Amino acid sequence: MYSGIITSRHNALIKHARAVRDGRESQDQIFIEGLRLSEEALRSRLVIQDVLYTEKFQHEERGARLLYELKAEGSRLSLLSEEVLAFVSDTRTPQGIVLLASRPHEGRDALLAGSAARSSKPVEAGQSTGAGLPLIVIIHGINNPANAGAILRTAEAAGAQGAISTVGTTDLFSPKALRGAMGSSFRLRLWTGADFAEVLSWCRQRGIRTIGSSLAATHDHTETDWKIPVALVVGSEAAGLTESEISMLDEAIRIPMRPPVESLNAAVASGIILYEAARQRRMGAG
């Protein structure tokens, strides 16, 4: 079923794959690496143009099945030597497969209506998918792609319907962010590269309350009402949200911490707050 092998780093496809990996060209494509993430991409019905794999990968049961399914979907399969795959890889221990896929549709329309890969039913303003009220995460100024990916994964696990990233935030579809999200990037509705003030206005017009954490807040995250349409705003790892940004939100909260600790990792803090929202919504639904 597979023939030929690429053994040169100077091959045009190899150069292109490296450029997509590093974000140097083809903003319409994303670089997906690893068995599980590739399976998630296929299940999420992403449009996958190229599949780069090794001989060892094709002889593994899950690997062979995945390659068969990818070929059936019309993807181009290219066999690489172990050395060339390692050259293309973004990880220290390559798993033997890399995909080049079309970047999922993003933007405010995607956040409202989703895409074919994520939902077959449009979502009206003020509605959520499935049970419960809208819960959105706004990622503002996060620079670490692994943190951004972890926030997306936690958001999906806690029941959020979508996420927004603002201008200057790390690319949610970079290889490291995709690995951190472990497939959540393919399923959540996303609006990326948005203007912060525009996002807040968009939420306000739809009755979605914006909430962020602040050391100066007067009440804890457990004391606010999460059983309403809400957008959790997550600030940068180093400084969080500025006083000016906090003043633009509807509400500021704090996570109680024992001294001398004053702050938490952005992904950890997001998880604590999102699961409080999930707890309240679950209790309210009961």
Can you walk me through this structure?
The protein is of the alpha/beta class. Helices cover 38% and strands 18% of the residues. The protein has twelve helices and ten strands. It has a six-stranded parallel β-sheet with strand order 7-6-5-9-8-10, with helices on both faces. Helix 7 links the parallel strand 5 (135-139) and strand 6 (162-166). Helix 2 (35-43) runs parallel beside helix 4, helix 7 runs parallel beside helix 8 (175-181) and helix 7 packs parallel to helix 12 (266-285). The chain starts with 11 loop residues before the first helix and ends with a helix. 41% of the residues are buried.
Task: List key phrases describing it.
single chain, alpha/beta, four-stranded mixed β-sheet, 10 strands
SSE topology:
Blueprint: H1 12-21, E1 29-33, H2 35-43, E2 48-54, H3 55-58, H4 61-72, E3 76-80, H5 82-88, E4 97-102, H6 108-113, E5 135-139, H7 145-158, E6 162-166, H8 175-181, H9 184-187, E7 189-194, H10 196-205, E8 209-213, E9 230-234, H11 243-247, E10 251-253, H12 266-285
Parallel strand pairs: 2-3, 5-6, 5-9, 6-7, 8-9, 8-10
Antiparallel strand pairs: 1-4, 2-4
Helix pairs in contact: 2-4, 7-8, 7-12
Helix percentage range: 25-40%
Spatial extent as radius of gyration = 20 Å
- Cα(first) to Cα(last) distance is 53 Å
Largest sheet, if any? Answer: 6 strands, parallel
Provide the spatial order of strands within the biggest beta sheet.
7-6-5-9-8-10
Q: Name the poorly predicted regions.
A: 114-132
Q: What letter string, H or E per element, gives the SSE order?
A: HEHEHHEHEHEHEHHEHEEHEH
What's the shape? elongated
Q: Please, how many helices? A: 12
Q: Approximately how much beta-strand content do the residues carry?
A: 15-25%
Mean pLDDT: 90
Number-wise, the strands total 10
Q: Structural class of the helices, strands and pairings?
A: alpha/beta
